[in-house]
Amino acid sequence: GVKEKIYCQNLCLLAKLFLDHKTLYYDVDPFLFYVLTEVDQRGCHLVGYFSKEKESVDDYNLACILTLPPHQRKGYGKFLISLSYELSKKENKVGTPEKPLSDLGLVSYRSYWTQVLLDILAKHKGNLSIKDLSQMTAIKPEDIISTLQYLNMIRYWKGQHIISVTPKIIEEHTKLISKRGPRCNPEHLHWTPQCAPNKKR
Fold it and tell me: What kind and span of H or E run contains 107?
């Protein structure tokens, strides 16, 4: 936002055409912008982007996300969401999108959170706590709890949340998940946090 102010402002104005709740588009200095493109013989073509605050006291790892309408339903939105969490892992932080989420944003995030959590629960043997899941995924505990509640896979017992799942329940939910789109591969991510990573999440 600092180095390419006009370009980033134009990205925000473009997003405002498609996002009813988009309000900020002039003050881009406090934000970093991550742009996703498709590449062909003519060059790079914008398909979407997300922005995030350089420093967020609320642990926001994404401020605004947009996939251009011609490129929706290709999995690019979930790819950008997965990238935002891989960046949080690099920072040794847990993250959450800026609230409140739009209706469409909630659907996209809930789908992503569901896929990530079911992947872990299906493969992991033994007990897992909410804190364990948060440290493994960089997803904020509140988002994990709300997702598991939505899936009816959590119970509140003696003052704490207990994950209650069986292989059959995981299999039933997995069948209902839409086709998995592309994910950010952390092995191909070359990115250094602006600030020194936290030692603990």
Answer: helix 103-123
